[in-house]
Structures are given as C-alpha cells and as structure tokens.
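Subject: Sanity check before I submit

Could someone independently write out the structure tokens for this chain? I want to compare against mine line by line before I put it in a report. The sequence has 370 residues.
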Amino acid sequence: MSTRRRQWPPSSQEVICTLHRRPVYIRVHLMDGRFLAVEFEPSASAKEVLEMVQTKLGLRPTARGYTLYEVFGEMERSLTAEEKLADTLAKWERYRNVRVSDQSSMYQRSSDTKLSNGISSPIQPGAEGPVHLLLFKKHLFVDQFMDMDDPVEKELLYHQMLQAIRTDRFPLTDMEAVMVCALRTQVEFGDFNGQLDYEGVIGQSLPRRRLPTVPIEAVMMHHQSLFGMTPLEAKQALLTIVQSWPLNKATFFDVTQSFTSNWPKSLWLAVDHRGLHFLEYRTRNILCHHDYKNVLSFSPTLSCLMVVTGSESKPAKIVLNTSQAFQIANLVREYCEILQPNGVVLLNGHPAFDSDSGSVRGSVSAGSTS
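---
Independent answer below. Compare away.
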C-alpha cells in the first residue's frame, strides 16, 4: 500500500461504505464507451486501482504505459501513481456541492430579477453540466511498452486512436480521412451493400470541421474496394495508416505563444519518447523539434510553461501559455525516466526532475529507445 497521506476528508460515499464495511466503488470508463465497476479500499492508490483494471481487462501482467485520467468536460489530467482514489472522489463531491450551491444562488438572484421585470430566468437549480469521470487509456507510447500481438492491447489502442481522430487530436490528410471512414464502416457493418449510413459513420469518425472535406461518395467507393476484408484486417489497416506518420505516438497539447512573430499564435506541442515537437495548430507542419538532450529545463506554472533549450553557454527560452503545464511536465518527466536504465534522469549528478516545484531540470539522450 502507498504511504502517501490523504489530502481530502472522506466523501459521503466513502463514509457510507465504511459504515457498511464495504469497499468504495467507482466506474472506470474505457475508450470504446464501456466501463468497469471497480471496488477498492479507501487507502488504495491510483497505481493499485490501475492494476485492478488491467487485470479485469485481461491485459498481460507486464503491460506498461497505461494510466487513469481524471476527466471533466474537455479537460483531463493523468493521476500520479501515489494519489488516493478516495481523495479524487472526495474532490469531485466537493466540486459538485459548490456548483449546486452556486446554481441555487444564481437561480435565486434571477428569480428576484424576474419579479422586477417579468422576464423568466433560463437558469434552473440542478441544471446539468460536465461531470467528472475516471478514464483508462495508454499514456506512454514507447515500443517496449506496446505489444501489438496482444489482442486486448491492440483493441484498446484501436479505440484510443479513433477517439484521438474524432476529437481532433490527430491530423489526417483528406485521403487518409476517407480511408479511415471506409475502414471503420467495414469494421462495424461489413461489406458494401449500398444501404449503409455513411453520413453517420463519417460524423462519428471525424471532427466536425473535417466533415465538408470528406465526400460520402469517396467513402462509399473506397468501402467497395474493401470487399471481403475481415474486421481484424480492417482494424490493422487503420492502425497502419496512423502509424505511417512519425509523430503517431505523440500526445498533443493546445498551447499559445507570443515570443516570436515567425510562428502562429496557436500551436500544438507534441510530446513523445523522442522529445518536444512544435507544430502549426491541427496540422502536420512541424515548426521546430528539440531532443530531450537539448532541453535544459522545463518549468510549469498554473497558466504557462517555460522551456529552456540549447546549451549552458547559450540557452534559449520558449514561453508557452497553457492550462496543462503540469500535465506536460509530468509527461516529459515520465519519458525521461524510462529513457534511463536506472529510471533516474541526472544532470551533473543531480535529479533532473524537481518534485517540489514540478520543474524538469537537465537533459537526457533519447537514443536509448527505438
């Protein structure tokens, strides 16, 4: 068991479970829309619950690179191994209570306004908004962490990649978009018969902004060429399309910058096992690349991220605005750790990651992975 202390008082659910001498319950959602019911002790860490999920899914015991994400609306945060899941539930409950209280106050104020001007308020107490949930997915994409011969892992990665495409986190060419839609149709409906809902498949496969660029007729024609292909073959073909791009293993973050007029204001920062890649937003146009060996320091705050690259004698600062600075820093730290045989990244004899400030100091060679 982890020895990390609790950060939040028990939630109502934890108190009730304790009174009835039952484990705490939580739903862990998967990328294909399913969820698993997981029971755990209040002292359980995220790492321990993660191992329970992997066992329930049938992943091999040595499977690595997965994590649990805390999701709220469009925002998500990977849980650290030592975090207590019971604390996460307590935090969610606190947020819900505050939101309900704020909604009630707003409804009361709007009701008072209605009495004075006769206009009905659109605000209703208890109105639904984004909800918190726990999501299981691949976190670190390194060759030695990926076993495409494992049918369970292959299925998980297939659905995770579909979700990345659907949420505009993976750029496709127009032709690749047509092929992806046709292959997904083959997976879900089988061979071409002329009566399939191609418009629905396209809408479920691509982000809204890409829909006008993908003609239904083109998807139908490509689907006809897939006649006789099994679902497993179609899934493999889709994964092959994705893997043809060198940055297919990267995690993409939305950032903005104002330190140079040579780049657009809005960018993608892609983080993978090789380093940091700066791209034009939602495109494959790479503006700049930095290996980890060229990154001197990596300092996050709540709203921005400072990356220092180059050499000790001639450093260069890159300042990015983002609400996910700590997520990016943690991902960089995790990649740096797995690139080192002893799991610790060192620069001049000192740890490269400062656990107190959250900053990453130092450099690491990316040459040890392939």
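---
OP: Matches mine. For the report I'm noting this point. The chain has nine helices and 15 strands.
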